[in-house]
Amino acid sequence: MMLDPLGGIVITNDGNCILREVDVAHPAAKSLIELSRSQDEEVGDGTTSVVILSGEFLNIAEAFLKNKIHPTIIVNCYMTALNLSLKYLEEIAIEVDVNNEENLLKAIDSCLSTKFVNRYNKIVSRLSLEATQCVKVENIIGKKEIDIKRYAKVEKIPGGDIMDSYVLKGVMINKDITHPKMRRYIKNPKILLLDCTLEYKKAESQTNVEILDENTWNQLLLQEEIEVKKMCEYIIDSKCDIVVTEKGVSDLAQHFLVKKNISVIRRVRKTDLNRLERITGATIVNRCDEIVEKDIGTKCGLFEVKKIGDDYYSFFVECENPRACTILLRGATKDVLNEIERNLHDGMNVAKNIMLEGKLLYGGGCTEMRVSQYLIKEAANFDDSRKSVIESVASAFEIIPKILAQNSGVNVVKCINELRTKHEKPGSEKLGIDGVTGEIIDVSSKNIWDLLSVKKQIYKSAIEAASMILRIDDVVSGIGKDDKIQKPIKNEF
């Protein structure tokens, strides 16, 4: 539980969320926080692991620096170890059938097992997979594209139970129609998306109008009415049923449109407009006089306005091949909903990474122990000074199984020694630590998996961040102390 600067409460076990709320002054600490943020943006998982590993690589470097080994040699050894590790990860990775939903769900379950939602793993894993599959498309050259950030929107509605959450294969907007007499239920609607205002356009610079009599004032009002009517006529001529605009809509425009039985939704976010464009087949129009027939979206099967709780929501559903979705989350409180959203984000990223790459590694610290053993063997091929650094990097990888053992409450030294001994024997490539009981188990039997893409990104980011900090010779502050700031010299002449 954390208190943010505005007095709000954040309850989470998400590494990136915790570090984002922490206020630090040290530049190296800021670098590690940035590292966690970039890990979250890149692959969506492994935010805690990357900071732990990076800290451990810096920790082992301290002894070498005290022994007068130059930072450049240490950094070169780190990069050699990184290249060896990445090569070995590719060798031991396991191919997974991305068309088999059961395999995908097992991998997502494994990712979410340490999260707040582990009691509801089945439902959150299912939501993550459904949402990711919905936004998956193939580009012109046949390559898969999955843009979760733009096309999978999470809508949080307090109340109800998490089991009531579902994936809506369409778009839901927290908006109501602008006029009570407009239609709230339309089958197979024709949808027009606008990025312009439906009101009299104000001048960009200050404008003064001189009104000499009442007739001039009436002419001015009439001109405004004519302009709005002209815009509405273009919309009416397009024969659309619904107008969705990012900007405002005047009362006069609503009057003209409601007479022609056209529903209007205004001040919609740009991101929601982009998702509507994707599911309806419409094109966003910037000026009313540029509307053509092909700009109208016809792929939506149903438009409906519903009241959930105290708010009205507009639903665009039953779409022909929807390539965007809305995940409707229900939960007891806002804190619970925020944490479920963070966990769902991780789950969707795991699903995305498996679909794009389709390779898994054994979890529970098993991969780190195997990489550690591999690096120790490879270190024998280098001279003494480099050998000792690479061996230390190998031992640093053991921090992951150590923390798993520590969190489960077992004797850490005994557990790691036992795991290390077993990994030295053949046929032990599936042995790792159960994060709940602390026992050494066959991780594949409990479906404890890691993603190859996540592991590679963790190793790259951790070693590169540690190397960058080790290369620093001095810290030069660009902020002067108050007593050292030179005061301006007064002109005495």
TrEMBL record:
Pfam families: Cpn60_TCP1 (PF00118). It comes from the Eukaryota. One of its GO terms (molecular function) is ATP binding. Its main location: cytoplasm. InterPro entries: Chap_CCT_gamma, Chaperone_TCP-1, Chaperonin_TCP-1_CS, Cpn60/GroEL/TCP-1, GroEL-like_apical_dom_sf, GROEL-like_equatorial_sf, TCP-1-like_intermed_sf, TCP-1_chaperonin. Keywords: ATP-binding, Chaperone, Cytoplasm, Nucleotide-binding. It is found in: Cytoplasm. One of its GO terms (cellular component) is chaperonin-containing T-complex. SUPFAM superfamilies: GroEL apical domain-like (SSF52029), GroEL equatorial domain-like (SSF48592), GroEL-intermediate domain like (SSF54849). Belongs to the TCP-1 chaperonin family. This is T-complex protein 1 subunit gamma. It comes from Plasmodium yoelii yoelii.
